[in-house]
Write a sequence for this structure.
């Protein structure tokens, strides 16, 4: 497989598939695994057959004990590569077509209670220079259900505070309009006052959230901020920025929001992705038994 073909595949992922930079990197990393395997066995990935790919799958997954989610991601990358080859007439048939995706156990996401959200907010020290920024970050993640990548990439030019919404660029560069809650609007306004006092690094002027050096915040920094706040609030759950997104969706659903609306707010292409939020808590199950089972009626 020559480098020119590799560059063509990169362009295909970026322009024709409209994948995010993170997804492109993941797909290319998975393809390198296939290239390395084929090189070790004297094969060209372009001319690999189903048996070769099946052997690659066994060697990569079974022996390494790769979990089903990682397996699924790698197989998605392999399928994408061979669809690209087929689409561009490098091959006549897709040898990956019969490779079976692993069965995925549906995991119920970790969700914070409203009280835990309040505890995180109460743990923010507003006397510190970063305090108001961190308050605005929490309100944006929980109040609008943003992904962490969407938060760090959020630009002032895409925020319409007076109208109460923002233009979000999600996965695959797909755009959607997301409302900003009144609380988030207020807290972000306070952060803007602090932000205006920063010396902003050239090229970072339009990013909504910055560090003390005037640079765009990183995903890793958002994780660190949330981890520290949870520790200060005494929350024992494993919490990430995505936990706030899960909490946003779950609390909307519990309070009567339509699943289709939640799908649009989260930017899910498929409603089945959103349906994981239809889980019910153990407390809900317990209450149902207490309320409706005849043995508990008086």
């Amino acid at each position: 497989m020559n480098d020119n073909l590799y560059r063509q595949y990169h362009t295909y992922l970026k322009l024709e598939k409209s994948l995010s930079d993170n997804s492109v990197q993941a797909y290319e990393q998975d393809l390198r695994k296939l290239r390395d395997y084929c090189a070790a066995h004297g094969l060209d990935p372009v001319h690999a057959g189903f048996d070769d790919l099946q052997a690659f799958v066994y060697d990569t997954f079974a022996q390494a004990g790769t979990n089903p989610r990682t397996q699924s991601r790698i197989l998605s990358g392999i399928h994408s590569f061979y669809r690209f080859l087929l689409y561009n007439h490098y091959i006549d048939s897709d040898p990956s077509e019969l490779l079976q995706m692993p069965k995925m156990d549906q995991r119920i996401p970790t969700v914070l209670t409203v009280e835990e959200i309040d505890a995180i907010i109460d743990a923010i020290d507003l006397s510190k220079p970063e305090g108001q920024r961190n308050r605005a970050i929490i309100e944006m993640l929980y109040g609008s259900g943003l992904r962490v990548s969407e938060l760090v990439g959020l630009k002032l030019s895409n925020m319409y505070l007076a109208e109460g919404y923002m233009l979000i660029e999600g996965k695959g560069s797909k755009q959607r309009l997301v409302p900003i809650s009144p609380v988030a609007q207020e807290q972000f306004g306070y952060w803007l006052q602090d932000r205006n006092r920063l010396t902003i690094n050239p090229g970072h002027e339009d990013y909504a959230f910055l560090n003390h050096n005037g640079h765009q915040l990183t995903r890793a920094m958002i994780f660190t901020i949330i981890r520290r706040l949870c520790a200060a609030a005494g929350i024992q759950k494993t919490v990430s920025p995505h936990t706030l997104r899960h909490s946003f969706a779950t609390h909307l659903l519990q309070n009567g929001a339509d699943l289709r609306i939640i799908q649009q707010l989260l930017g899910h292409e498929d409603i089945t992705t959103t349906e994981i939020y239809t889980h019910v808590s153990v407390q809900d199950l317990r209450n149902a038994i207490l309320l409706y089972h005849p043995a508990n009626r008086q």
Summary: Residues 21-40 form the longest helix (20 residues). Strands lie at 159-160, 165-169, 175-179. The two ends are 74 Å apart (CA to CA).
